Amino acid sequence: MEKATIRMRLSAHNAHYGGGLVDGAFIMQVFGDVATELLIINDGDEGLFRAYESVDFLVPLFAGDYIEVIGWITEIGNTSRKMEFEAYKVIEALPSISASAAHVLKEKVLVAKALGTCIVPKESQRY
Asked: CA 121 to CA 95: how far, in whole Å?
């Protein structure tokens, strides 16, 4: 099935807690952006996010980290689209060294994963 990927740097604006910690709600927002791209690819319409069946936050993220978020459709119903999402840390900020220090991780680290369902009304499906 088709995959969609977003890569981005987490900025101080994304930090919600002390120490530059980024909250899980931000990752869920990015999962939603990936879902929108998948629906446009599959149906020609943004659709609507109906529900998350599960969300797991596994590793903390901080301002300055870079993430890669991947999603794919696992099941297509009449109007429903079941999806899986994974978020990985690919570059880690090193504020203990300096405000701009970072390094590329040798292996990306799974930081969050989710299962969700989106809906594309029949009359909005163009493909």
From this structure: 47
Residues 6+ away with beta carbon under 8 Å from 99: none
pLDDT tens readout for residues 30-85: 999 999 999 999 999 999 999 999 999 999 999 999 999 999 999 999 999 999 99
Per-residue pLDDT tens over the stretch 89-126:
999 999 889 888 899 999 999 999 999 999 999 998 99
Strand partners, 87: 69, 112
Specify the number of domains making up the chain: 1
Residue 18 domain boundaries: 3-124
- Could you tell me if residue 49 is left (phi over 0), alpha (psi between -120 and 50 degrees) or otherwise beta? beta
